[in-house]
Known about the structure:
Blueprint: H1 15-19, E1 54-60, E2 79-85, H2 99-102, H3 112-125, E3 133-138, H4 141-152, E4 158-162, H5 167-175, E5 179-183, E6 185-186, E7 189-190, H6 192-200, E8 211-214, H7 228-241, E9 244-248, H8 274-280, E10 294-299, E11 311-316, H9 317-327, H10 336-379, E12 386-389, E13 396-402, H11 417-431, E14 436-437, E15 463-469, H12 475-492
Parallel strand pairs: 4-5, 4-8, 8-9, 9-10
Antiparallel strand pairs: 1-2, 3-11, 6-7, 10-11, 12-13, 13-15, 14-15
Helix pairs in contact: 3-10, 4-5, 6-7, 10-12, 11-12
Amino acid sequence: MTQGVAKDFSYLYSDETKGRTPSQLKTIIHYFSDPNLIFLGGGLPMSDYFPWDNLSVESPLPPFKNGIGAKPSGESSDTCHVSITKDLKESQAGIDIPLARSLQYGHSKGQPEVMKFFKDHHEMIHDMQYEDWDICATVGNTGAWESTLRIFCNRGDSILAEEFAFSSSISAAEAQGVTLCPVPLDEHGIIPSKLEEVLDNWAAGVPKPKLLYTVPTGQNPTGSSLSFDRKKEIYRIAQKHDFIIVEDEPYYFLQMEKYEKDPSKRVEKSYSNHKEFIDSLEKSFVSIDVEGRVIRMDSLSKVLAPGTRFGWIIGSKDILLQYLRLQEMTIQAPGGFTQSIIAGTLNRWGQEGYIDWLIGLRHEYTKKRDYCIDALHKYLPNVDFITVNPPIAGMFFTVDIDASKHPEFTTTYKSDPKLVEKAIFDKAIASGVLVVPGNWFKVESLTNGKQPEGFVKPAESSVIFFRGTYAAVPLEKMAEGLHRFGDSLYEEFQISR
């Protein structure tokens, strides 16, 4: 199949982006590695004065026969040994990033050894539909989202977001004076017909939203996941109304089978080969993008460790150039220690070993999800106004509660679901467990207290929800926490056991 090239979306750039020029000093950094040139042009300290001469780390070795949670024994049969030196040895070429380079200025796009790994990884997983795409390192998806807002949005611009969204992403937009317009969700994520209705009815002459921000897989906070059919519909709407889709995908590889309530009917999913695993993954927005109107944000936070502070963006080369120019003046580059460790580990695991790790994660999260949902059914009141929502991806579960069923809804709580929500939260805290009120994630379509023209605010509902995670604690501790949450609901709603 002949691939096309990305569309020019520069007309959607912010004034800041249009006014930004390349850093003159950054344009000469590639001369630093030229052995025939005496480089006196930049404030780069000599690596001789870096106090670290070597770095050694150990990790489990693929195929992780003892499970991804098993500690390596130190034996060569199950331990991956990584030893990185200040200067590159010939045997390390293409595998390791020497500390003399990783700890130096430069490579704002990411060190070649680690970026090649993730570009090859991306090509294994996602079927790109246009030629001029690229990859750029980030310090994680939260930082990448903040950069995205700066690249595309001026104060007063509008963007679309799921009606309940990651609170830090909401705060980042609000801080930049961007109006967030909530798109209705159901248990399967964004409802395409509702999204189209919002935009078809937008007031004439009022600029439409530039971006749609979405967490398509294991959505935070609702745990919902978009099907491929819905993604295709949403992409069609993006073309029709000319906005960029930003898919924030830290949970992409935490996909799992549907929850089966009867434990005897559960079958542990196994794969005869890696292609079977890859084919089981829901297709991404970026894999259907023919115009370069999708920006995909990936991260190691949920598959290796949050403290790596490492991620990457996939998009058209022209758009990623704007990220690079911004990062050259902000983060400079992701941490050097991180890049050396990641490159040293993953290049020894190889692409096949990394897939083994991701398959192991799927197994572990499925086991924890099932245990969690089982415990919710066991400990929460069995009434028709409390609903447990088992996710098919990610690390969050939600519990829907019809606040109007509270015996004091119309009296003490004045028919206000938010007051019931706060009462439940306070009761749970007093019982020794913390679950997060859904209202903390609600997207309010206001800027300076004003509703955007042409936007119809979704109707309020008496149904509230709480978000919890099955990722953060051991199984036994999770069960105790859910038991306490159940006790709080029994007490608050005055339900007899």
